[in-house]
Protein: Spermidine/putrescine import ATP-binding protein PotA
Amino acid sequence: MSRSAPSALPVFISSLSKHYGAFCAVDTVSVDIAAGEFLTLLGPSGSGKTTLLMMLAGFARPSSGSVRLGDQEVVHLPPHKRNIGMVFQNYALFPHMSVGENIAYPLKLRGVGRMECGERVGKVLDLVQLGGYQDRRITQLSGGQRQRIALARAIVFEPRILLMDEPLSALDKQLRETMQIEIRRLHDRLGMTTISVTHDQREALTMSDRVAVFSRGRLAQVAAPKDLYERPVSRFIADFIGESSFLPVQKVSGGLAYGGQLLHLADAADADLPEPMLMLRPERLDVVYAGQAARDENTNMFNGTVRSVVFQGESLLFEVGLDQGDVVQVRQSNRSQCTENLPSKGERVDLLLNRFDTRIVRGE
Ligand code: ATP
Structure:
């Protein structure tokens, strides 16, 4: 985790709920966010991410539960008394004001004098790499520049916490990826506690210390990006973060089996999960001609036939129909040494999975 700024505050969210009539948009969510942490709320559309963020900002009133910033309970405070910076998807800049006036706006609200305003606006413009842009009109800026100005306006008054709602979704892919790295760098420099909402899993993995995955108003898992990818607790999470195929496995004496064959597992405790499924990440499998690989206790082998091979530049994506009827995706990286000998459509193959790459997830 990055170094926190001296003024950064932890956020404690406890049993927070929001009902709209009989509908529960956020359902008893509890999570503690450390001072200086970058947490991303990730989830499908309508899962409650924005509603949670709005309750933190003070724009939506919780039905029940508590939000503490440091040791202060804030659920009854209006937004302007929470000292929170906010960046929205559509920038929400004032088009009739110059860049400088936009950024100075929150300072003026707080009674900061003209001289100091000018100084702080200059500094924050340098931070977002738009030094000298004070007098430009908002309409003269590109999408990426507008988003940087929105960010500058959100941080100019040194808020204790920064909230961002889909901050990059209006930008094209390339700019979005550049801005992800830039925002993360800025966060590391300033060290403020940051909570961001996205439905883009790559953005969440790239920017965050931890990711909180939402499903129907509830927190399905909160974990560091690597743990979320490597150890998803359920099929829903594994499906949402990265690509995956799933095989139904049976509990047998001695562990778990697929197609009557005992699996060699990384973690024997996995066999105790309810409704277990074997999660297969495409990049963790190897595809070889049938009968070419030897069986051993560190390798799981599945027999099947290649249904299709798609060339995707840096890799080839295989779809293999297993003899049991399940279909599995396999990704092989495009290295000339290896790819020349890869099987093609219709050929019989074995899929190899190292026992240390086996992951069992709850099948829901
Ligand atoms: P998206 O990624 O599409 O923005 P989200 O995860 O941010 O989705 P929310 O905007 O928090 O989802 O909405 C959660 C649920 O609450 C949705 O089903 C939405 O229709 C509902 N909802 C949100 N605001 C209201 C409201 N004012 N009245 C009634 N229902 C609402």
Q: What stands out?
A: The first helix runs from residue 49 to 57. The mean pLDDT is 90. Residues 58 and 77 are 7 Å apart (CA to CA). Residues 20, 23, 25, 43, 45-51, 199 surround adenosine-5'-triphosphate (CB under 6 Å).
